[in-house]
């Protein structure tokens, strides 16, 4: 089946809904063909990374978040989410670096709190 721009949008929105409904594996299944057809789609990759995280596929989440950061180094959310992924995997030293980058890029209270700047 050929993918149309409309199909991509429908699948992306449906994947968002599945993630909200706590079905991250279903979201990944919808996003995989979209990303295969459009590997440059950073929004879809970010959504898939979140779905991987919520389904405890931490290595896959890490790789997706890293790819987003390579493309958008100033994406504070991607740094924060990568930090949460690394933290969940027990890699707190690596996580701290990304928490701090997220807080430096966007000083939202939750990012600043997670960065723990006072413990430098």
Report on the structure:
With 120 residues, the protein is mainly alpha-helical. The protein folds into 2 domains: 1-58, no CATH class; 73-120, no CATH class. It has 7 helices and no strands. The chain has helices at 5-20, 24-37, 42-54, 58-71, 76-88, 92-105, 109-115. Helix 2 (24-37) packs antiparallel against helix 3, helix 4 packs antiparallel against helix 5 (76-88) and helix 5 packs antiparallel against helix 6 (92-105). The mean pLDDT is 95.
In short:
This protein has about 120 residues and is mainly α. It is built from 7 helices and no strands.
Beta-strand percent range: under 5%
Poorly predicted tracts of residues? none
Care to count the β-strands? 0
H/E element string? Answer: HHHHHHH
DSSP helix count? 7
What is the general shape? Answer: elongated
Biggest sheet overview: none
Radius of gyration, CA atoms, in whole angstroms: 15 Å
Mean of the pLDDT scores?
Answer: 95
Summarize the amount of helix as a percent range: over 70%
Counted up, domains total 2
Instruction: Compute the separation of the termini in Å.
Output: 54 Å
Q: What structural category arises from helix and sheet content?
A: mainly alpha
Descriptive tags:
7 helices; 2 domains; elongated
Topology:
Elements: H1 5-20, H2 24-37, H3 42-54, H4 58-71, H5 76-88, H6 92-105, H7 109-115
Helix pairs in contact: 1-2, 1-3, 2-3, 3-4, 4-5, 5-6, 6-7
């Amino acid at each position: 089946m050929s993918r149309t721009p409309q199909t991509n949008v429908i699948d992306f929105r449906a994947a968002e809904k599945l993630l909200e409904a706590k079905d991250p594996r279903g979201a990944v299944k919808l996003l995989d063909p979209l990303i295969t057809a459009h590997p440059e789609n950073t929004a879809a990759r970010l959504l898939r990374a979140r779905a991987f995280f919520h389904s405890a596929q931490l290595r896959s989440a890490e790789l997706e978040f890293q790819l987003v950061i390579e493309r958008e180094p100033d994406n504070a959310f991607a740094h924060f989410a990568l930090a949460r992924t690394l933290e969940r995997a027990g890699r707190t030293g690596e996580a701290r670096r990304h928490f701090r980058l997220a807080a430096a890029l966007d000083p939202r209270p939750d990012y600043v709190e997670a960065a723990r700047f006072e413990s430098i």
